[in-house]
Design a protein that fits this description.
Growth Hormone, Chain: A, globular
C-alpha cells in the first residue's frame, strides 16, 4: 500500500482528525442502537432508526453533491463536522434529561442522516485537494483503511465503554471524539476548485449522472456497492439485537473507491461520488428497514440467510451481465 500521501502535512493532519472522529461515529452508532434496543427490544425499531439515518443521503445526497462542487469546501467541511458535534451534544443532553425515548432517538437519527447527506460528498471532495494529483491513489487507500479500522475498532470501543462505564460515558466519548476535527479543518487550505461556467443545479446534476452512466466500470461498481449495502450494511445496523453487550467486527470495506476516485476529476468529484453514496447508503437504509421487519416476523437468522442468498444471486447476475457486455464490445 502506498503511503506517499502521509508526506503531505495537511492531509496527515486531516487523516488524524478523521480517524478520531470516525471512531466517535461508530461508538455513537452502537450507543444509539443500544439505547433503542433497551427502550423497545424491537429489531424492527433498530431497522427503522437505520432507515432514518441512511435514507436522507439517498434523496438529498445528489443535491449536496452539486452544491459541494460550487462552494468553499473547507467551510463546508467545518459546517458538517460542527453539526455532527451538535448532534452528539444533543443526544447526551437528551440522555441526561431522561428524554431519550423512541421519538427523540428517531429525530436525532434523522438529523444525523441529513448532515451525513452533505458530509459524504464534502469529505470525498476535500481530501484529493489536500495533496498533489500524483498522491490521489494513496489518499483513497489511506482513507479506506482509516474507515475500515474504525468500523472494526469503533463498535468494540463502544461496547466496552457501555459495558464498563455506561451509556453516559459512551455519549461523552462521542462528543470528545468529534471536537478535535473542527480546529483541524480550520487550519486546512485545500486546493481551490477550477472555475466553471455558471449553470443551473439541474444541468450540473445531469452532468454528474451522465458521467456515472457513461462509465461501464463506475456504473457496475456502484450497482454492486448498492447490493452489498442492502444486505451487509443493513445487517450491521442490527448488531445490538444479535447479542447483548457483545459486539462483532464490521463488514468489508470501501476498496472499490480507489478505482472510482482515480477516474474522476476535481470539478465533478462531488457530484459523481454523491451518486455512489446515494446508492451505498440508500441500499443500507432500505436493507436495514426490510431486514428489521423480516427479522421480527421470521427471526433474525432466517432473515439474514434470505438476504445473503438473494444478494449473492443478484451480484452474480450483475457480473455475468457485465462480462457479456464487455464481450459484445470487443467484437
Amino acid at each position: 500500500m502506498s503511503l506517499t500521501a502521509l508526506s503531505t502535512r495537511p492531509f496527515r493532519h486531516y487523516l488524524i482528525g478523521n480517524a478520531i472522529s470516525l471512531h466517535g461515529l461508530w461508538v455513537q452508532k452502537i450507543t444509539i442502537g443500544w439505547m433503542a434496543w433497551e427502550a423497545t427490544g424491537s429489531i424492527g425499531f433498530l431497522g427503522w432508526l437505520a432507515f432514518l439515518n441512511y435514507a436522507p443521503p439517498l434523496f438529498l445526497g445528489p443535491f449536496f453533491g452539486v452544491i459541494v462542487d460550487r462552494v468553499n469546501i473547507r467551510k463546508a467541511a467545518i459546517t458538517t463536522q460542527s453539526l455532527f458535534l451538535f448532534a452528539a451534544l444533543a443526544l447526551l443532553a437528551l440522555h441526561l434529561l431522561q428524554l431519550a425515548g423512541p421519538a427523540s432517538l428517531s429525530a436525532v437519527a434523522f438529523f444525523i442522516g441529513l448532515v451525513t447527506s452533505a458530509q459524504h460528498p464534502v469529505r470525498m471532495a476535500i481530501t484529493p485537494r489536500l495533496v498533489p494529483a500524483s498522491q490521489l491513489a494513496s489518499v483513497v487507500l489511506l482513507l479506506s483503511l482509516n474507515f475500515n479500522l474504525a468500523r472494526v475498532i469503533g463498535p468494540a470501543i463502544g461496547g466496552a465503554i457501555i459495558a464498563t462505564f455506561g451509556i453516559t460515558a459512551a455519549l461523552a466519548f462521542t462528543v470528545l471524539a468529534f471536537f478535535p476535527f473542527v480546529p483541524i479543518l480550520h487550519r486546512l487550505s485545500p486546493r481551490p476548485n477550477l472555475p466553471s461556467p455558471q449553470t443551473s443545479l439541474r444541468t450540473d446534476f445531469s452532468e454528474g449522472f451522465r458521467y456515472v452512466l457513461g462509465s461501464s466500470f463506475i456504473r457496475t461498481a456502484t450497482l454492486i456497492t448498492g447490493l452489498f449495502s442492502f444486505s451487509g450494511r443493513g445487517a450491521l445496523e442490527l448488531l445490538p439485537s444479535l447479542a447483548e453487550g457483545s459486539y462483532q467486527r464490521g463488514a468489508a470495506g470501501l476498496g472499490v473507491l480507489t478505482a472510482i476516485q482515480l477516474q474522476v476529476q476535481d470539478h465533478i468529484r462531488g457530484r459523481v461520488m454523491s451518486l455512489w453514496i446515494m446508492v451505498a447508503m440508500g441500499g443500507t437504509a432500505f436493507g436495514a428497514l426490510l431486514l428489521g421487519a423480516l427479522a421480527d416476523a421470521i427471526g433474525l437468522g432466517a432473515a439474514l440467510q434470505i438476504f445473503g442468498a438473494s444478494t449473492a444471486l443478484a451480484t452474480i447476475s450483475v457480473l455475468i451481465h457485465r462480462r457479456i457486455a464487455k464481450s459484445g464490445e470487443s467484437r
